[in-house]
Amino acid sequence: MFIVENGNNIAYVGIGSNLGDRAGFLLMGIRGLIEASLEVVKLSSIYETDAVEMEGAPPFLNMVAEVKTGTISPTQMMARMLRIEYLLGRKDKSQKLPRTIDLDLLFYGDARLDTPFLTLPHPRIHLRNFVLIPMNEIAPAFRHPTLKKCISELVADTDDTSLVIRWSPTSPNGIRPPTNG
């Protein structure tokens, strides 16, 4: 059982979408977090990324949010995030399929938890640039509670070579077109 010691716990949430209006679904995911009584403190830039472990799937837009959790536990937070996913059209979290929204609880402070419902820290974060790069933008000094390395070190150490490009709505491939003048 996890006990919330104070109302100032910081958690990190990975947010992704690769179906429909991807940027719109990211925005609705953020709004869902706020409506679920979570205080969004920081947001990374949006990155267009390969669909890892989903051959032939369209690319994702991904970002990371830093949130204050108030007095809710990690399990309660995960339940709220699953509800947001469900409301935004995601029906089966266990399948590696394209999705309108994907919310992953990456870290909840330095909590370590391993239950059938939730594993903290997220077990594959150190293997995935699509999470490490946006998290490094907003929390490079955050220390992984089990690996004992900060996010900037995990980015430097990863073997992941998947594509991660800062996204812009002005260009379909995420690179801003050159401007004259």
What labels would you give this structure?
single chain, alpha+beta, Alpha-Beta Plaits, two-stranded antiparallel sheet, 25% helix, disordered C terminus
> What is the level-2 CATH architecture name?
2-Layer Sandwich
State the CATH superfamily name.
Answer: 7,8-Dihydro-6-hydroxymethylpterin-pyrophosphokinase HPPK
Count up the domains: 1
* Poorly predicted residue ranges: 175-181
Helix percentage range: 10-25%
Description:
With 181 residues, this protein is of the alpha+beta class. It has one domain (10-166): Alpha-Beta Plaits, CATH 3.30.70.560. 25% of the residues lie in helices and 22% in strands. The strands form two sheets. Strands 1, 2, 3, 4, 5 and 8 form a six-stranded antiparallel sheet that branches. A two-stranded antiparallel sheet has the order 6-7. A hairpin with a 4-residue loop joins strand 6 (113-114) and strand 7.
Quick summary:
This protein has helices at residues 22-35, 74-87, 129-138, 151-157; strands at residues 10-17, 39-43, 47-49, 60-68, 102-108, 113-114, 119-120, 164-166.
Set out the fold topology:
Elements: E1 10-17, H1 22-35, E2 39-43, E3 47-49, E4 60-68, H2 74-87, E5 102-108, E6 113-114, E7 119-120, H3 129-138, H4 151-157, E8 164-166
Antiparallel strand pairs: 1-4, 1-5, 2-4, 3-4, 3-8, 6-7
Helix pairs in contact: 3-4
